[in-house]
Amino acid sequence: MENETIYILAIESSCDDTSAAVLSNKKVLSNVTATQKIHEEYGGVVPELASRAHQQNIVPVVHQALNKANIDKKQLSAIAFTRGPGLMGSLLVGTSFAKSLALGLNVPLIEVNHMQAHILAHFIEGQNDGVPEFPFLAMTISGGHTQIVLVKDYFEMEILGQTLDDAVGEAFDKSAKILGLLYPGGPLVDKNAQKGNPDAFPFPKPKVGGLDFSFSGLKTSILYFIQKETAKDPDFVTENLQDICASIQKTIVTILMDKLKKAMKQTGLTQIAIGGGVSANSGIRSALKEAETNLGWTTYIPKFEYCTDNAAMIGIVGHLKYKQEEFAHQGVTAKPRYVLGG
Ligand code: KG4
Ligand code: ZN
Fold it and tell me: Which ligand 1 atom is at minimum distance from the Cα of 170?
């Protein structure tokens, strides 16, 4: 087993992306994702539509991943899948598919925690920033999650802080919706923010203790502010879009950075590994760069395709678990509230 090449087929279907990847040891041979466009018109993910789309996408996506990797399914060492957290109907599609395939091929089945995978994505071969050394801090910021995690080892993680209500991506998306921008609005807020004045409209920051976050109050204050201003001037949003976006972005980035600084100080660590779709945000990236210079931090951000929901990150966990022979039984079920470290 020592020198054997491990081929993992990984499946991710926790939310609205159907993804399959093939890994040869820690190297990604293919990472194919079908993003569901259907949710755009509803301004958010509709769970029932998501599971139906997964049903349609899963077979072609897996085929494409195997073809692209030029791997026959008989070569696979194991099948890894996202067990949770996520939407029940969505998780069920990936879970059932992985279980059947592992049974059919008579190979081990490996269950993966999606939040752990976002963090372990940093260990995929070929990252631009290199690999963090244990222990380090991780911050996962996406449309579904906001967490600061102490990472002691591959499978020894402790949540230090998380959101008590909306995720940071949701804060971006809901603010964008108030401004009449299309879903998901995070990237559009970012684009406009880059041309605006971040100090034009100050928004209050939540008072949450410890390392936890709250974003629902910010959304409400943005809503009231816009309602008040548009009552005075109906064109307020279009006339001030860039300044409004820059102000919202500055507030969100400050909330994140304040907690991160607190967590770094509290733990005495200097390495921070970022993940999740919101790590594409230009404001967060420049704040992290500044912290590298001013505070001596080392920041790791995976390639963007490994930041958003993807199966390659499930595959790297599959690889690490395979080496430890940590396999799941056929009786394993999807776990929508799968807590990290639980
Ligand atoms: O990780 P992800 O692809 O999916 C999950 O939610 O798991 O993250 C998507 C989130 C959305 O809320 C989207 O608006 C946000 O990431 N996002 C951004 C940016 N790019 C993506 N938010 C702010 N600025 C960006 N540049
Ligand atoms: Zn995710």
Answer: 12
